[in-house]
Design goal:
139 residues; three-stranded antiparallel β-sheet; 7 strands; globular
């Protein structure tokens, strides 16, 4: 039997140590609430301050089985709570414990923090299938 995984590791600079502290507090509060939830909000990733208590950069990474959608929801919530602006994005990898067809790939997401929405994403599996079908894949 094969095990399937989604992995990612990315940084988000929230601007100030105070905002990083607030982000970590929100994450811990949501994580505590998730223990009894049927649909956890921040499951599938972990959050730590990259440079200790005086840093403003958060390290977002999977905790064995990553949840890309949970990261996007949380970052959009942080953008609202902390009034973040600019573009931010991250990549993810799809892997498998055994060689299987269609079990490997990945993708990337870009988020407009100021507009509070995802502005685009690309799946390597879908890109490859389109390219092999002769479709225009430059856009």
């Amino acid at each position: 039997m094969a095990d399937y995984f989604t992995h990612f590791s990315c940084l988000l600079d929230v601007g100030t140590p105070d905002k990083a502290t607030r982000a970590l507090a929100l994450f811990q509060c949501l994580r505590a609430a998730d223990q009894d939830a049927d649909d956890p909000e921040v499951a599938g990733f972990d959050l730590v301050c990259q440079d200790g208590p005086k840093g403003s950069t958060l390290w977002i990474h999977d905790d064995e089985h990553g949840d890309v959608e949970a990261v996007i929801r949380f970052v959009l919530r942080l953008a609202e709570e902390l009034d973040l602006t600019g573009l931010w994005g991250f990549q993810y990898a799809l892997t498998c414990s055994r060689p299987r067809l269609d079990a490997f790939g990945g993708g990337a997401h870009v988020i407009d923090l100021g507009a509070r929405n995802s502005i685009g994403w690309r799946s390597s599996q879908e890109w490859l299938a389109a390219a092999l079908n002769g479709e225009d894949v430059d856009a």
